[in-house]
Amino acid sequence: MFGFLLLIVDAGAVLLFGSILLIGLGMGLAMPGFTAGPTLLVDRDEQGGLAGLISATTGLTFVVAPTAATALYGVWPLLPVIIGAGIMAAITVFVFTHPRFRSQPSSGLRDSGSNS
Q: Which of 15, 45, 49, 107 can pair with 11 through a Cys bridge, CB separation 3.0 to 4.6 Å?
């Protein structure tokens, strides 16, 4: 979110590179959790379908985001960055307020190999 906010300010190359560094760092930290986290919530026989859904979602973002950003840029050059910062702010609020993210993990992982 802070990387997107820094992109709004036009203060030269150093700030631009810093904001891109923050965005890349955030994506690098978030993507492993986005891809691995849901696998802990489904059974073994659902893993393949989940992997397909995660791969499709990730691939779709690399198609939709640049297309939408280009259209928004035509309206106002700062609009895609402001909307990106808004989306990141909404996700941040969601993660910090949702009870599922705030609960402590159980003492052990559930046995995904059992057929309960």
A: 15
The per-residue pLDDT for range 78-99, each reduced to its tens digit, is 999 999 999 999 999 998 998 8
Cα gap 40→73, rounded to integer Å: 39
Residue 30 neighbours by CB under 8 Å, 6+ apart: none
Q: What are the domain boundaries of the chain?
A: 2-102
For residue 44, how far is the Cα from the chain centroid?
25
Q: What is the pTM of this model?
A: 0.77
In sequence order, what are the residues at sequence separation of 6 or more whose Cβ sits closer than 8 angstroms to the Cβ of residue 79? 72, 73
CA–CA distance, 116 with 109 (Å, rounded to integer): 15
Tokens matching residue 10: 């036009």
